[in-house]
Design goal:
Blueprint: H1 2-17, H2 20-27, E1 30-36, E2 42-46, E3 50-53, E4 62-65, E5 74-78, E6 81-85, E7 90-94, E8 96-99, E9 103-107, E10 115-120, E11 129-130, E12 135-139, E13 141-148, E14 157-161, E15 169-174, E16 180-187, E17 191-196, E18 201-207, E19 211-216, H3 221-229, E20 231-233, E21 237-242, E22 253-258, E23 264-267, E24 273-278, E25 286-290, E26 293-298, E27 308-313, E28 316-323, E29 328-334, E30 336-351, E31 354-367, E32 372-378, E33 384-387, E34 389-391, E35 400-402, E36 408-410, E37 415-418, E38 423-426, E39 432-434, E40 437-440, E41 443-448, E42 460-463, E43 466-471, H4 477-486, E44 489-490, E45 494-500, E46 506-511, E47 527-529, H5 541-544, E48 546-554, E49 560-569, E50 574-580, E51 584-589, E52 593-600, E53 608-612, E54 616-619, E55 623-626, E56 631-635, E57 640-643, E58 647-650, E59 657-661, E60 664-668, E61 675-677, E62 679-682, E63 687-691, E64 696-698, E65 713-715, E66 720-724
Parallel strand pairs: 6-9, 7-10, 8-11, 9-12, 10-13, 12-14, 13-15, 14-16, 15-17, 16-18, 17-19, 18-20, 19-21, 23-25, 24-28, 27-29, 28-30, 29-30, 30-31, 31-32, 33-36, 34-37, 35-38, 36-39, 37-40, 38-41, 40-42, 41-43, 42-44, 43-45, 47-50, 49-51, 50-52, 51-53, 52-54, 53-56, 54-57, 55-58, 56-59, 57-60, ...
Antiparallel strand pairs: 1-2, 1-8, 3-4, 3-5, 5-6, 21-22, 22-23, 25-26, 26-27, 32-33, 45-46, 48-49
Length: 726
Amino acid sequence: MKHRILSMLTALALCLSLLPGTARAAEGDAGPVTITDNDGQSITLAAGKYYVINDEFSGGGVTEQDEQPESGPYLTYADGVLTVFGNSDYVRIYGKMALSGDLKVARDPAAQNNVNLTLARTGDSGPALSLNGHTLTLEKVVCFEVLSDDQPAVDGGTIRFTKLFGNSIISIHSETAIAASGDLAVEKARFVNIGGEPPVFQSLDVKECNQVQICPDSNNATELSSVIDKITIDRPISLGVLGKYVEDAESIRIEGVMTTDGKIWAEGWGFDSGTHFIDSSVTTPTAYYAGEGYAFYTPGDDDAGTPAKLTLDGASYEGTLNIHQADSVQLELKGENAVTQLVAAALTLTGSGSFTGIFSSETSFTNNFTGTLNAVVEYPARTYTVYGDRSTSDFSVRGVMCSERTPLTITNGATLTVPERGSVTIIDLESLTNHGTIVNGGDIQILLEEKPQGTPNFGTIVNNGGVTIYPTVDITGEEMSAFIKGMGLSGTGTVTVEKTDAGGNKVTENYTNGGLKLFPPAGQDGTLDLSNAGDADESNWDTQGYKWEVTKGEDDNGDPVITSATLTLAPGFNATEVKLPDTAVTIVTQGESAIGTLSPSSDPQKTELTFSGPGPLTIAEQVNIAGGDYNSLTVDAGANVIANGGIYIGASGGVNSIITVNGTLTATAGFGAVIHAGSVAIGDTGVLNVSGTDGVLLSGMPRNGDEKYNNLFSVTGNGRFSADCS
């Protein structure tokens, strides 16, 4: 019987443990925050309850209830978050708040505006906010204010915003007591205001804040200075320590910018835009706002030979900073800095941060900097040196001129970009010293007033735009080819030579980056239309660099048709567009050649395009063979094809097409698939290189029946495939 009774009690206990009442009890678990009204009545907030905020005349504090209030400000607590509800953007809690753990205070997520929250205590002992060493985090709270009368406003702990934003304010005040009775930390506030009896706080740790104002209830200089000694900061702040008003006496004010070493700088006007001058009117160490950072200036003494010092600390300024106060300036760089232009007579660069902008120096420039420099240095006047990555548009709207009076140097590892509408004009070949890289997307113009002697020392130039050469002396084609080849150009652009013949007529010649002289563009206005060329033609070999050979047969009706054709290209062939018939066509390149757009006839059904020959062929636009189920593209062994617009081949969706690579095929595309085909086969001698966002897209071979997805991509023997799809 005892065993039966024990079993029944155990079962009953198990059933009771599963009742809904127990779940509700879990919802009511106490949180880490207690609110005490001005009469000393305390409530520890718990999950699942609602807490109506009482007004001052009813004793303050909060009233707990089970039902959600219909109106008025109220609080809820859940999972470490105290949420403020109500229509008002200004909420005041009368009484005290004490934490037993970390707490986040947040506005109702559905509210459009942030809330201003005030905690005000009177009539009871202890601080208005007892952090007890914990952290109070504010979210969707724009201003947090703690007020007390004859007791400290807070004790020790941390008050922080989740992020630094426009008007985030922490305000802590006690009328007749110390403001913070413990070690207080504040974080991510735009403005911090603390007032109370000296020493105001035991210590104040300020992190990621912009401005701090301390208001001691004293006008004693020693007491005010001692307040500053108790402040630690992680970055420069605007600091004001304001003594109280005393009748018939001037209030003491200590104002300026405080740095992490405790030094107080005079506060100058902030930089905005345009030109800012630091001149002889600046006689004391002064700090200036510069974007989200600072510029610290210590005046120099020219008579004593002491240089001025300017420290940029995370400074940004879209304008010109012109230093006139001293002849010599030592510039120290901390953090990331960007100034459109900085002007000084003599400039010495130090530090280990980073800088983006222009330096202009009249008498000397010394670079002792160990950080990251993306700058153009103008020293002496109109002499430019490029560090890091810069563009010609950064320091010249009309273009950069290289001459004996205006030389240009690109330092080791630096890159100078010439944008699409930019230009560099080289009048004197010796005026350009390139130890880095020039990336040309615009126009580089070179004036040749005498025959070049030897190889030009232009360094690395990636020519993706145009290089135009203007010879004023007679230079043969072979000499011009050698000169261009010696420039060491790479890229996808071209070289144009503009000269005048013996009869005074302007003559234009085109060359590749490698110095190969190009034929005039083939065909009619650069379009070579062979789509209906049924007869062989070798008449253009000497003038346009191509010949056309055909093999004829008969169709099913006995009518003559082209069964195959060969287009042979001489070194230097170029055309804006080449149109081919829908048949088997082999393009044989005997040397370097260029085609803008290569396309078969409309809706090709049986195009078999083969590339052969040793000369590299560059095709600028996409090779598009979209049509029927029996189209193919082959790169023979030894051939070299560069398809800068990628390749699309096949029936609808790119199916039923074959790309065979036995030579070298390099394909790129700005967007989408670089190669879109039914299948790709790389042979033993084949090399396929692709670069672009989506690489190779294979759609299959439905014409093969059940094996339509078998072996769609294959590499045989020593064949190689590489892809850069970053």
